[in-house]
């Protein structure tokens, strides 16, 4: 996989962002700064010294001098008593403010992170912070104090790297925190020394010898910027990914403050780092022997640190292990893959073998030519499968509502609108890119794991990520959790659980809650697909980059979470985007207008979930999803905030997210700068479509849903909305045939029932079933079939273009030409394969007959209507493509014809029954209804009409037998309420009659 290159320390192009943004420069102190510092000093002096002095001299001791008695409580409250009470309150307030000042001073002087919060001291601590900041603003340590400066009007401008210092050969010292007035004079000398050092290193080779040991002193924060191992490696080693070498050289060595480096993401100002021998360059690099301004204290610190070891360690250790990941760091690590066998994972096989070069090179453009398909959806098999499944359910719901929801008369068979333009391309991309089998295996595997752990009374482990590689599923745990239950196995180490595809296929459906519903696809790395568990992240996940690039990631995440197949009930709150995404899943997606509404909502929900967990006796939602607990209580809530929050809102959000992973709440927040307080994991999306998270060890080909495809997807769902108002009584069939004697087709295929073809010779050899299946697909899509849709339907695991094109040519030769020489298999202007009107199926005839009977000539001619409906019902010989070979026609699962055909047959049976009952021909009506029930046995409308027709015969025994048959078919669930009400009306004694018959 192509890697993104990072710039060297002397380059001009920025490297990938990480959780440490670029530093802000020191600002020259103005006269106003000194005035503010003076007044801050006076205010602190008055509040810290003046207040207690005044209380002690003017009021004295406010509490009783002796032990209070009961009579003391009965004394009259005087002005003196009231003053004493107020004095006690003021003493407490002074003590709290003093504590705030001490906490803020300690944090400001140490330069380590945000200061601790003093309980109940919000306004007091804010005041103390502002005063301390103003006082220290004129000193060298003021830049390390981040909170509150903006409120004093201090504007820090520009961008530069922090000063660095290194010691070579003999440890002697580092550039310490110098005063502002000496910084500019030292910078030129240090830069010159850096150039000399870089030249010397270049002359002596790219890698220094073992005795060229160098050291670096971690710099204090600049503004809101904190130094990081990534930036240190980028400045001095030329590649931020080499931060692991620095980590390995310094891990678990005692620092000057007595602590140790244990996680690569946690370093402190003032620490000493031993550097690899080839470290050089940087903005300001200092050779200690030649730096008279380095303090003796810092030189001694480096000397003492060098004695702890590591100077003679291998400088290039672990350089090649970029993806291995440190077990001591919180990283998302790509799993080790088994050699790929015969299985090519869903979309990977399709993309690699179907000629990906024909896909759209510009995902945003959507390829107006029509032959290419949106690459964003072709490369997102799980997202495409979720969208395709949700779209199918939406269309089926619309069909049923059309059939059952009509009032004041029956409605004709509703035909889903045929998408055109960008919507058609997106629908084809969903058909090509979807991997429903992968979704099914992922869902069964995760639920099966949860069920196995519950049987062993083991809790669910916290899972940070899931990887799908060569058909296998790898779960990366937050920490080791022992051996997994069979058939799961340990992966490359104790934090990986792995399930082979062959074992996953043996899982059956289990009735248990989805254990990890917050998993969502982010992209691919080295042919492995990453799903990040947003619900488990210990804090906020931030996403930086341009607004357009971030929008593609947010839309992809929202769409997959809303439609995926491995989650139960969940809530996805969208803020700052996605109002038009709600049609994808109105029950899951919720849009809020602003961050204020989000804060109010999440504060209430956080309190509620904490209380619910405590009342249930669970540590986290993971324990609440297993065992006898009602898992619906632990449905996840995932917040996608595209609008960058303000500083105050960011802090509030960080406080809410601190305990979010335990509560089943996840936060993905967009930021322009990449600097977001409280962000546990930071990612960046680049204009090249790369998703970077350096400290997590990730560099992915991002999964995106650009605006153009997003709009087209939403259009498909809006058109399929069952609540959408229709412009007419019904929709016309997609293809009407000439049902007269003159309209006899050249090729006639019977699909309703066993598959038969009339007018063509059966192809010889083993290719005959494949050609029959291809023709059936074309017959069910008279609007045309994209060649890639055809190939993905016939070869779900992938096929090369030459094989597909050879099949198309054989199919064209088999179908032949019309009398005028026109091929019966052609290609339209968009590149889709289409059939000529001379190639017809019985389903086309069935639709045309019903349409003509109910909306054509049969409306005003009763005799014509009866003949057309009778002819239509005769065509029904069973279910669609009955007796089709096993293992083929899997693409029918994406179609809605299996729902359309029974409804169409039921409508024909109901219309013909009404036709006969108008002339009191009850037996004919019963015959028509029974014929329709053969293909639509679950249609309640047919049973109701059959009960009415049977009742009209006056044969009560026959009606009782029919009622008993209905009860036996209903099973344990019993009869539907409307059927019971109809029986009560037609046969009040039906319950006793059924018992007697039973």
TrEMBL record:
InterPro entries: Bact_Kbp, BTAD, LysM, LysM_dom_sf, TPR-like_helical_dom_sf. Residues 330-344 have a biased composition (Polar residues). The keyword Chaperone does not apply. Residues 319-329 have a biased composition (Basic and acidic residues). Residues 1-26, 160-222, 278-372 are annotated as: Disordered. The chain crosses the membrane at residues 80-105, 126-145. Residues 841-987 form the Bacterial transcriptional activator domain. It comes from the Bacteria. Residues 1-17, 163-206, 345-356 have a biased composition (Low complexity). PANTHER family: PHAGE-LIKE ELEMENT PBSX PROTEIN XKDP, POTASSIUM BINDING PROTEIN KBP. This is Bacterial transcriptional activator domain-containing protein.
């Amino acid at each position: 996989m192509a890697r993104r290159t990072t710039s060297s320390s002397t380059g001009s192009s920025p490297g990938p962002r990480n959780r440490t943004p670029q530093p802000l420069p020191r600002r020259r102190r103005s006269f106003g700064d000194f005035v503010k510092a003076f007044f801050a000093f006076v205010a602190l002096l008055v509040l810290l010294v003046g207040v207690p002095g005044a209380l002690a001299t003017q009021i004295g001791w406010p509490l009783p001098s002796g032990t209070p008695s009961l009579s003391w409580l009965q004394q009259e409250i005087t002005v003196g008593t009231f003053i004493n009470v107020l004095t006690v309150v003021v003493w407490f307030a002074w003590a709290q403010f003093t504590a705030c000042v001490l906490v803020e001073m300690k944090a400001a002087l140490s330069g380590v992170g945000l200061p601790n919060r003093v309980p109940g001291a919000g306004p007091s601590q804010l005041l103390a912070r502002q005063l301390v900041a103003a006082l220290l603003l004129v000193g060298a340590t003021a830049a390390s104090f981040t909170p509150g400066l903006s409120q004093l009007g201090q504007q820090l401008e520009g961008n530069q790297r922090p000063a660095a210092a290194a010691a070579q050969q003999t440890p002697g010292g580092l550039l310490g925190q110098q005063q502002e007035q000496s910084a500019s004079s030292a910078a030129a000398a240090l830069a010159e020394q850096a150039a000399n050092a870089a030249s010397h290193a270049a002359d002596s080779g790219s890698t220094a010898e073992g005795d060229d040991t160098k050291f670096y002193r971690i710099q204090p924060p600049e503004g809101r910027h904190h130094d990081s191992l990534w930036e240190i490696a980028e400045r001095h080693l030329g590649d931020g990914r080499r931060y692991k070498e620095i980590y390995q050289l310094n891990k678990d060595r005692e620092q000057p403050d007595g602590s140790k480096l244990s996680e690569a993401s946690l370093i402190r100002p003032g620490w000493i780092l031993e550097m690899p021998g080839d470290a050089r360059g940087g903005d300001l690099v200092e050779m200690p022997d030649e730096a008279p301004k380095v303090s003796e204290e810092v030189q001694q610190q480096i000397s003492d640190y060098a004695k702890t070891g590591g100077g003679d360690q291998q400088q290039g250790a672990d350089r090649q292990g970029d993806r291995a990941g440190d077990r001591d760091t919180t990283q998302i690590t790509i799993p080790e893959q088994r050699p790929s066998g015969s299985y090519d994972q869903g979309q990977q096989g399709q993309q690699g073998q179907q000629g990906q070069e024909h896909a759209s090179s510009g995902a945003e453009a959507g390829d107006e030519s029509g032959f290419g398909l949106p690459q964003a959806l072709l490369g997102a098999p799980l997202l495409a499968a979720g969208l395709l499944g949700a779209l199918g359910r939406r269309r089926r719901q619309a069909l049923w509502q059309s059939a059952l929801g009509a009032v004041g008369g029956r409605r004709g068979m509703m035909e889903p609108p045929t998408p055109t333009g960008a919507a058609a391309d997106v629908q084809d991309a969903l058909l090509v890119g979807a991997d429903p089998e992968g979704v099914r295996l992922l869902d069964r595997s995760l639920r099966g794991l949860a069920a196995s752990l519950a049987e062993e009374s083991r809790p669910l482990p916290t899972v940070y990520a899931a990887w799908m590689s060569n058909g296998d599923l790898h779960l990366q745990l937050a920490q080791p959790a022992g051996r997994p239950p069979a058939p799961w196995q340990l992966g490359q180490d104790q934090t990986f659980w792995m399930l082979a595809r062959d074992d996953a296929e043996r899982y059956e459906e289990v009735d248990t809650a989805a254990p990890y519903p917050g998993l969502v696809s982010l992209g691919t790395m080295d042919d492995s697909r990453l799903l990040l568990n947003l619900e488990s992240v210990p804090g906020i996940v931030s996403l930086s980059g341009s607004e357009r690039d971030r929008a593609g990631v947010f839309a992809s995440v929202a769409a997959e979470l809303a439609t995926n197949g491995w989650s139960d009930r969940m809530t996805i709150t969208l803020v700052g985007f996605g109002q038009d995404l709600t049609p994808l899943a109105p029950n899951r997606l919720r849009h809020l207008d602003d961050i204020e509404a989000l804060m109010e909502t999440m504060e209430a929900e956080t309190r509620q979930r904490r209380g619910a967990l405590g009342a249930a006796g669970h540590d986290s939602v993971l324990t609440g999803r297993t065992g006898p607990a009602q898992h619906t209580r632990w449905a996840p809530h995932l917040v996608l905030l595209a609008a960058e929050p303000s500083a105050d809102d960011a802090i509030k959000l960080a406080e809410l997210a601190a305990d979010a992973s335990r509560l089943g709440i996840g936060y993905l927040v967009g930021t322009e700068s990449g600097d977001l307080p409280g962000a546990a994991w930071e990612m960046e999306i680049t204009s090249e479509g790369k998703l970077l998270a350096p400290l997590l060890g990730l560099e992915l080909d991002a999964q995106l849903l650009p605006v153009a495809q997003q709009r087209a997807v939403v259009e498909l769902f809006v058109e399929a909305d069952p609540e959408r108002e229709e412009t007419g009584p019904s929709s016309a069939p997609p293809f009407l045939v000439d049902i007269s004697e003159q309209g006899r087709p050249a090729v006639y295929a019977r699909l309703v029932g066993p598959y038969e073809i009339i007018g063509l010779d059966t192809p010889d050899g083993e290719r005959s079933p494949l050609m029959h299946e291809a023709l059936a697909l074309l017959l069910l899509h008279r609007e045309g079939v994209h060649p890639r849709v055809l190939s993905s339907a016939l070869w779900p695991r992938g096929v090369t273009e030459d094989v597909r094109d050879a099949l198309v040519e054989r199919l064209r030769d088999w179908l032949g030409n019309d009398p005028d020489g026109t091929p019966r298999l052609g290609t339209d202007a968009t590149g889709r394969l289409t059939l000529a009107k001379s190639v017809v199926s019985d389903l086309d005839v069935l639709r045309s007959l019903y349409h003509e009977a109910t909306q054509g000539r049969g409306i005003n001619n009763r005799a014509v209507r009866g003949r057309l409906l009778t002819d239509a019902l005769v065509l029904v010989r069973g279910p669609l493509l009955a007796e089709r070979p096993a293992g083929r026609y899997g693409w029918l699962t994406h179609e809605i014809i299996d729902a359309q055909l029974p409804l169409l047959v039921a409508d024909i049976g109901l219309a013909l029954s009404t036709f006969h009952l108008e002339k009191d021909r009850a037996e004919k009506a019963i015959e028509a209804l029974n014929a329709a029930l053969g293909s639509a046995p679950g249609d309640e409308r047919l049973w109701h009409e059959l009960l009415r027709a049977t009742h009209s015969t006056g044969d009560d025994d026959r009606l009782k037998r029919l009622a008993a048959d209905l009860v036996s078919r209903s099973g344990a669930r019993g009869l539907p309420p409307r059927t019971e009400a109809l029986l009560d009306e037609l046969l009040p004694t039906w319950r006793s009659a059924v018992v007697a018959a039973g």
